């Protein structure tokens, strides 16, 4: 495990510095920077239950208390819940179709699924 980039989807997001190849303004770069705002990762995760279906916009209040793990493309992201009853779960954030819903019970299950599929 390291500081990106090998991993599921488009690879793991770096923990400490933005993507070195970030020369274009991609949605993932804004998501990554937002996670680094003071207190954001320590904030309570706002959802008690999944929020399936169209959300409509990338509402940043929904992703407080989560860490961006990977980008799936088209504005979809996988996030690790850091606080509350869903701590350690991986959730899919897809504001256009799926909403914000659990994807995997934890990082190990998610990453192991990717490793065994290679």
Describe this entry's structure for a reader:
- The chain is α+β, with helices and mostly antiparallel strands and 118 residues long.
- It has 2 helices and 5 strands; from the N terminus they run αβββββα.
- It has a 5-stranded antiparallel beta sheet with strand order 1-5-4-3-2.
- It starts with 26 loop residues before the first helix and ends with a helix.
- The model has no long low-confidence stretch (mean pLDDT 87).
As a percent range, the share of strand residues is 15-25%
Order of helices and strands: HEEEEEH
Radius of gyration, Cα only, in angstroms? 13 Å
What profile does the largest beta sheet have?
5 strands, antiparallel
Count of distinct strands: 5
The low-pLDDT segments are none
User: Which overall shape is indicated by the principal axes computed on the Cα atoms?
Assistant: globular
Helix-and-strand structural type: alpha+beta
Strand order of the largest sheet: 1-5-4-3-2
Distance between the termini: 16 Å
Number of helices: 2
Helix content percent band: 10-25%
Query: What is the mean pLDDT?
Result: 87
